[in-house]
Write a structure and sequence with these properties.
Strand content: 5-15%
Shape: flat
Distance between the termini: 18 Å
Number of strands: 3
Number of helices: 4
Low-confidence stretches: 8-14
Strand order of the largest sheet: 1-3-2
Largest sheet: 3 strands, mixed
Structural class: mainly alpha
Length: about 100
């Protein structure tokens, strides 16, 4: 089985790949996380200062253009929200892998 973990069909060589919805009946789409993390117990004032600097870089025109020019998707999240996104994506990927026969159910 060949499937594309995007919400649209992708041409691969001379064949095409189904979306995961077509292949295994789920709306899963692949995410790539670009994360910067700190150690557990990082003081709140340090987390705030670093987080603000990282968010400023993320929102810079240079970074936005760099990502757009390469076709990379972007989604800003911080702290608990970022942790939840990664955890939810992990569950979704596990379900898709199980439906595709690549993991135990």
């Amino acid at each position: 089985m060949t499937a594309s973990a995007t919400p649209f069909n992708v041409g691969i060589s001379t064949t095409s790949a189904d979306t995961t919805k077509e292949a295994v009946g789920t709306d899963f789409s692949w995410a790539v996380w670009r994360s910067i993390v700190g150690p557990k117990g990082l003081p709140d004032d340090v987390e705030e200062k670093l987080g603000a600097a990282i968010e400023k870089a993320y929102n810079s025109p240079e970074y936005q253009k760099f990502m757009k020019d390469r076709g990379f998707g972007m989604r800003w999240a911080r702290g608990e929200e970022a942790t939840k996104i990664v955890a939810d994506d992990d569950v979704s990927l596990g379900e898709v892998m199980a439906k595709a026969g690549l993991a135990k159910q």
